């Protein structure tokens, strides 16, 4: 039987847990041509959520383009990625893709080849020395051109949007601001993975995208939604799990979708048919996970400074919301001063090891937190 818990990629269908309110909110935003910045920690399922919402849009009279900005490194690759996403959202066959690309992005010298399966592979001839400015204007104005004069409803979804901060200038940000505020028939859902960067981009008065749209922080999935989701999948596989064990799972993962599904996946591995999950099996599953990740965690740990290690040990061992710059925390965990704790926190934020959380911090990898508690705090 196929494992019923999925993680590590886009999760769809029955493997996707709840998020009904969020899907409804995003659908309303798209129907009203809103501009929305959706952000959270990494692996929170933003892409899965947005794809679930997009899947509920009517098939006729609606066009959506998903753009993964993670691989982009500058304005030129931003331009070609957006152009490619828009073109492919409108066409599927080799001939149609090229026709559409030439119609909307002719200046980018599009060309199309077919892969081994006959699927079109679209490329553009925008070289590193080409003038990117006019091409950027052309690409960013295209969604409004498509939606104009009774055209389809258009939704553009730039994923890993914070990547544009790595481009070396704010040109793309400034151009986006000037363009999207006039696109009254186009919805934009900007997805970002780093909570401390996305608010900076849209809430800092000195940034071009200040208040350019609403912001939608994505939180964990509540235990009341995990309870039936997890229970039903174990029961369907002739395995048992009670509410207490599901509660313990949610306590360990803090409701984080990736880590909850991952832990349940391992529990499914360990549990034989006609058997049930108990606390001892849950502890064994956590050990399996920590053993599998031990090399990566040890390598990461050895790359940290002494202050960063002490800060993480303290954060792993304290309750949620602890004041990490207060005198008690600093002295209890061997940090020399509050400023030392602040420097450690900034470095760990930059490495994506921790994230801000309601005035405090949390360790983003829930299993790294468990590893620190079990190995490094001994």
The gist of it:
With 378 residues, the chain is an alpha/beta fold. Helices cover 49% and strands 12% of the residues. The chain has 3 domains: 19-217, P-loop containing nucleotide triphosphate hydrolases (Rossmann fold); 223-299; 304-376, Arc Repressor Mutant, subunit A.
Give, in spatial order, the strands making up the sheet with the most strands.
2-5-6-1-7
- Mean pLDDT, to the nearest integer, reads 92
Shape: globular
Total helical segments: 15
Tell me the Rg in angstroms: 23 Å
Per CATH, the class of the largest domain reads Alpha Beta
The percentage helix is: 40-55%
What percent strand?
5-15%
Describe this structure in words.
The protein is of the alpha/beta class and 378 residues long. It folds into three domains: 19-217, P-loop containing nucleotide triphosphate hydrolases (Rossmann fold, 3-Layer(aba) Sandwich); 223-299; 304-376, Winged helix-like DNA-binding domain superfamily/Winged helix DNA-binding domain (Arc Repressor Mutant, subunit A). It is 49% helix and 12% strand. It is built from 15 helices and nine strands. The protein has helices at residues 20-31, 46-54, 75-90, 94-105, 132-147, 171-180, 198-203, 223-236, 243-253, 257-270, 279-302, 306-317, 327-332, 338-350, 366-376; strands at residues 35-39, 62-68, 111-114, 120-123, 153-159, 186-192, 214-217, 354-357, 360-363. A five-stranded parallel β-sheet has the order 2-5-6-1-7, with helices on both faces. A two-stranded antiparallel ribbon has the order 3-4. Strands 8-9 form a two-stranded antiparallel ribbon. Strand 5 (153-159), helix 6 (171-180) and strand 6 form a beta-alpha-beta unit. The longest helix is centred in the C-terminal third of the chain and has 24 residues, at 279-302.
């Amino acid at each position: 039987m196929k494992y019923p818990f999925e993680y590590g990629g886009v999760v769809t269908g029955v493997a996707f847990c709840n998020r009904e309110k969020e899907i409804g909110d995003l659908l309303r935003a798209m129907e009203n041509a809103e501009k929305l910045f959706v952000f959270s920690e990494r692996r929170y399922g933003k892409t899965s959520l947005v794809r679930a919402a997009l899947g509920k849009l009517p098939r006729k009279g609606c066009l959506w383009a998903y753009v993964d900005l993670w691989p982009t490194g500058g304005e030129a690759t931003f331009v070609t990625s957006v152009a490619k996403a828009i073109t492919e959202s409108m066409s599927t066959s080799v001939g149609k893709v090229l026709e559409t690309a030439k119609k909307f992005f002719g200046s980018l010298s599009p060309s199309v080849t077919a892969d081994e399966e006959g699927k079109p592979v679209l490329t553009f001839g925008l070289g590193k020395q080409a003038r990117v400015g006019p091409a950027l204007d052309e690409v960013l104005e295209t969604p409004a051109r498509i939606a104009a004069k009774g055209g389809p409803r258009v939704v553009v979804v730039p994923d890993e949007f914070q990547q544009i901060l790595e481009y070396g200038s704010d040109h793309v940000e400034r151009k986006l601001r000037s363009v999207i505020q006039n696109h009254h028939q186009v919805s934009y859902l900007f997805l970002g993975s780093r909570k401390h960067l996305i608010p900076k981009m849209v809430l800092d008065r000195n940034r071009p995208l200040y208040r350019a749209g609403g912001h939608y922080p994505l939180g964990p999935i509540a235990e009341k939604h995990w309870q039936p989701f997890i229970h039903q999948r174990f029961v369907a596989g002739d395995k048992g799990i009670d509410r207490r064990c599901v509660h313990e799972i949610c306590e360990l993962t803090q409701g984080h979708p990736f880590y909850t599904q991952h832990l349940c996946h391992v529990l499914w591995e360990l549990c034989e048919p006609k058997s049930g999950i108990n606390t001892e099996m849950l502890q064994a599953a956590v050990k399996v996970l920590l053993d599998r990740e031990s090399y990566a965690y040890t390598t990461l740990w050895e790359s940290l400074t002494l202050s960063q290690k002490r800060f993480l040990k303290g954060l792993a061992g304290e309750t949620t919301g602890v004041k990490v710059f207060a005198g008690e925390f600093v002295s209890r965990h061997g940090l020399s001063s509050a400023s030392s704790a602040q420097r450690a926190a900034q470095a760990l934020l930059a490495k994506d090891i921790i994230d801000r959380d309601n005035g405090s911090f949390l360790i983003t990898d829930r299993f790294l937190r468990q590893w620190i508690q079990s190995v490094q705090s001994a």
